[in-house]
């Protein structure tokens, strides 16, 4: 496995899903890039400096949402496997990367792993990557 590091400072990240996974991903990426979260609801979660877009795209609508923002990274973090699959499929062009929260539906591109100690969180690559929790 080859660890990859992406400079997202001038890029856009789109997170589909406003649950705890989507909020965690949004907080993380909003520190580095313009981050947009697309979800029908957000609850009382902290999304950092991410832009929140209240919408519930159907699977067939996901590609147009991805194209609208032209992201470098797309995160599938919904509780709907069909939408997550559509997000991953929409990120298939070579200029995009996808990560998916579902262990049963791997994105096929990025499988991040992280270790956290106190307030420090670091990416880690150990042999075969683990899925984020």
TrEMBL record:
Comp. bias intervals (Polar residues): 96-105, 113-124
SUPFAM superfamilies listed in its UniProt record: NAD(P)-binding Rossmann-fold domains
Pfam family, one: NAD_binding_7
Region spans: Disordered: 90-133
Protein name (record): Siroheme synthase
Organism of this sequence: Haloferax massiliensis
Underlying gene: cysG_3
């Amino acid at each position: 496995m080859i660890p990859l590091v992406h400079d997202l400072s001038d890029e856009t990240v789109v997170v589909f899903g406003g649950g705890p996974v989507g909020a965690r991903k949004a907080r993380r990426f909003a520190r580095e890039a313009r981050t947009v979260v697309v979800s029908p609801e957000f609850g009382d979660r902290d999304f950092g400096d991410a832009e929140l877009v209240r919408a519930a795209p159907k699977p067939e609508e996901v590609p147009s949402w991805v194209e609208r923002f032209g992201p470098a990274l797309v995160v599938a973090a919904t509780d709907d496997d069909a939408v997550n699959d559509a997000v991953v499929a929409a990120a298939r062009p070579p200029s995009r990367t996808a990560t998916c929260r579902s262990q049963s539906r791997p994105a096929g591109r990025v499988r991040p792993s992280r270790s956290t100690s106190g307030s420090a969180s670091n990416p880690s690559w150990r042999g075969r990557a683990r899925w984020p929790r």
